[in-house]
Amino acid sequence: MWSGTVVNAPHSGIFCGLIMQIKPTSFFETPNLAPQNLRNQVVSAVGQLAKGPWCSLSGGRTNRLWRVGNVVVKQFDIQVQSLLFPNDPIAETRALLHLAQHNLAPTLYAAGPNWLAYHFVEGQSWSQNSELVAQHLGRLHKISAPETMFRAAPSGSAAVFEMAQRLFALCSGPILPPPKFTRVLGLKTPNLIHADVVAGNIIVGPEGLRFIDWQCPALGDPAEDLAMFLSPAMQMLYRGQTLSAEDCSQFLAAYPDQLVVARLQDLKLLFHYRMAAYCLWRAQNGLKDYQKGYELEKEALERPFY
Questions:
Q1: Which of 103, 119, 135 is at the close of a domain?
Q2: In degrees to the nearest 10, what's the CA dihedral of 204, 210, 213, 215?
Q3: Which of 154, 188, 212, 256 is most buried, by CB atoms within 10 Å?
Q4: Could you give the C-alpha distances from 226 to 16, 44, 81, 193, in angstroms and in order?
Q5: Whole-angstrom Cα distance, residue 10 to residue 171?
Q6: Is the domain of 177 the same as that of 274?
Q7: Number of domains comprising the chain
Q8: The pLDDT of residue 6
């Protein structure tokens, strides 16, 4: 059971207490309908904000989402975890509260033991203008956070390589030989990162650009966010196509800290190697679309495109 201190999240003069110490709702009740227990908890927490029909939202690969008026209700399947992408409702709650004044994430209304209710961000998943993403990531990476607020993400060549090896150890059959890489030390002062900056988690609309799905934020290397956005596997899986060379160059030129870009260049082969391991693991566990992602990351190891 998830428990903690009650926190108030203001929005338009309405204060919604974050619900804690409630029996978690069952993740599967019907394919599309929200469990009644979940509905009752959300309505009790946010009242009229959650008035209207519950409409299932597509896009999430791990958790279930519904739109209720201008509220998104996200129910976590906390049994689904991975080394690369933790699935942590507490971390997402903390991230949304921490970023409330920065116009980078949705407004949080309430939270329960395995669910969140937050403001629906009007717009479309990112599809063009890579410079805009780079500029907003630059803003995010300048925001400080207490060192105990989020998990510590692997930083430096040795740590990234070690995680790749752990992922490949979960796979069957022959694995890719490790690339030759530059030795890069871990950051002494890590930055706040999103850690899952894929096109589906970037919404562009009337309110500007917002990053959503904060279930795996971390204190880590900003180069990891850049690598995640540029990943050919993640672009193909979430956008249907990889980035062009021009997209990549414009993205890197627009990122405010060119020292981070230089660090990315030193680490990029290891980021591709780790993503190849992740895609192979997912493909071997029934998600066949990740096989194409594996091939794309393998190709990027042989012919880097940025």
A1: 119
A2: 160
A3: 212
A4: 35, 40, 22, 10
A5: 46
A6: yes
A7: 2
A8: 31
**Within the chain, where are the H helices?**
36-46, 89-98, 130-141, 157-169, 222-230, 232-239, 245-254, 258-284, 289-302
CATH for 269: 3.90.1200.10
d(CA 30, CA 123): 28
The first and second tokens of residue 228, run together, are: 């995640």
Pairs from 241-248 (Cβ < 8 Å, separation ≥ 24): 242/296, 243/130, 245/305, 245/306, 247/130, 248/130, 248/305, 248/306
Report d(CA 230, CA 252) in Å as an integer.
10
Query: Residue 130 in contact with residue 250, Cβ under 8 Å?
Result: yes
Residue 82: both structure tokens together: 């991975």
- Domain final residue, candidates 80, 99, 119: 119
Residues whose CB is less than 8 angstroms from the CB of residue 295 and which lie 6 or more positions away in sequence, other chains included: none
Q: Which domain holds residue 295?
A: 124-302
Same domain (yes/no): 271, 185: yes
Q: Are residues 95 and 182 in the same domain?
A: no
Q: What is the pLDDT of residues 251-269, one digit of tens each?
A: 999 999 999 999 999 999 9
Q: How far apart are CA 149 and CA 77, in angstroms?
A: 22
> Do 142 and 16 reside in the same domain of the chain?
no
Residue 40 lies in a domain: yes
How far is 42 from 28, CA to CA, in rounded Å?
17
Exposure b/e, 253-280, CB count within 10 A at least 16 = b: ebbebeebbebbeebbbbbbbbbbbbbb
**pTM of the full structure:** 0.89
Q: Is 270 in a helix, a strand, or coil?
A: helix
Domain membership of residue 259 (yes or no) is yes
Cα(47)–Cα(37) distance, integer angstroms: 15
